[in-house]
Amino acid sequence: MRALRFERFGGPEVLGVEEVADPVAGDGVAVVAVKAASINPSDVLAVSGRMEDTTLPRTPGRDFAGVVLEGPDDWVGAEVWGTGGDIGYSLDGSHAERIALPVSALARKPVTLDFAEAATVGVNFVVGWLGAVETAELAEGETIAVFGVSGGVGGAVAQIARAVGARRIVGVAPHAPAPGTPAAEAIDAFVPFDADTDVPAEIRRLTGGRGADVVYDAVGGVTTPSAVASLAHRGRLVVISAIGTSTAEVDLRDFYHRELRMLGVDSRKLDVTASAERLKRISPHFERGEFRPLPIVQTFDLDHGPDAYRAVAEKTVRGRAVIQP
Predict the structure, then answer these.
(1) Rounded to two decimals, what is the model's pTM?
(2) S-S: 293 plus which of 117, 141, 207, 310, CB 3.0-4.6 Å?
(3) Residues in CB range of 100: below 8 A, 6 or more apart
(4) What is the structure's pLDDT at 276?
């Protein structure tokens, strides 16, 4: 089969398409024909060597959708989707014609999504669900502020918050989500993150002076002081990344007087099987139309995989880029 490969760390120029041995099904292992696989910023970081536990040589790629070629009889021919914190790092990933997976990692793709749409869901919705629902335990009637709402994870979190029954969803980002996108339709209000806006004050105004019960910070680092200041009493802050700086100064007296909680979430800790369990929980929301995939702005064949990585690395695409082997 053909696969996108890298044998040393670096920019998109280290990637190349190679002929490699077909993966083989065996005891507890299935083989999936990859129909579509999106490119995440974390895939670019893996190729650059900035994601721990990435081993060489490697086929990158976390998210995928495809058809089971080999495996248990009741799975052969099934349309599946997946993601994982191990594939593309310590195991060969999805930017190839085929991928081998544990049978326990197989999850049926929602019939409402085509392969390309399904391939954009994995990382964004799994880490969104893990942070908002499982870790912060966002409940019906609570308020949430989503920092980075215009990005992949932030847009997913806004939709998840709407499905959970959040009373008010405030999006925060340098620029508002494009009209008509899922994130734009899920939020109740938008606050620009810029030098002219007191973001915490604006969030308190929008929440009747309380602040947000949950702040999901999909940016982190440069946004952390504002995120902490935006919390209501006993509020929960979810942190999944650190942009610009890996440290933040927190007034500890204010922190404990307000009984705040800061919660770290790392989707890399979920392997492809654990991620499949989350996708099974998320799938009904897509089938009912409560969740919508993020917009696809460009597709590439495997030969142009390095170009796809370059577009994501240089941020020349505003939306999802998908490889269709």
Answers:
(1) 0.96
(2) 117
(3) 23, 24, 25, 29, 30, 31, 32, 92
(4) 98
Nearest to 108 by CA among 85, 155, 76: 76
pLDDT at 167: 97
Q: How far apart are CA 1 and CA 115, in angstroms?
A: 20
Residue among 261, 253, 252 at smallest CA distance from 231: 261
Q: Is residue 128 part of a domain?
A: no
Structural domain for 42, as ranges: 2-122+271-323
Say yes or no to pLDDT of 157 above 80: yes
Average pLDDT of the chain to the nearest whole number: 97
Average pLDDT over residues 90-117: 98
List the CATH number of the domain containing 41.
3.90.180.10
Domain count, the chain: 2
- Residue 119 CA to residue 121 CA, distance in Å, equals 6
- Looking at the structure, tell me whether residues 150 and 225 fall in a common domain: yes
Closest CA to 320 of 119, 64, 154, 184: 119
Residue 207, pLDDT > 90, answer yes
> H or E element: which one contains 254?
helix 252-257
Integer angstrom CA distances of residue 29 from 24, 70, 93, 229: 8, 9, 15, 48
Picking from 190, 189, 192, 185, the residue whose alpha carbon sits closest to that of residue 163 is 185
DSSP 274-305: HHHHHHHHHHHHHHTTSS-PPPEEEEE-GGGH
For 45, other C-beta atoms within 10 Å of its C-beta total: 14
CA 9 to CA 306: how far, in whole Å?
14
pLDDT at residue 317 greater than cutoff 80 = no
What pLDDT, on the 0 to 100 scale, is given for residue 77? 98
Omega cis (within 30) before 57: yes
- Is a pLDDT exceeding 80 seen at residue 241? yes
In sequence order, what DSSP letters do the residues of 141-184 get, joined into one string?
T-EEEEETTTSHHHHHHHHHHHHHT-SEEEEEESSPPPTTSHHH
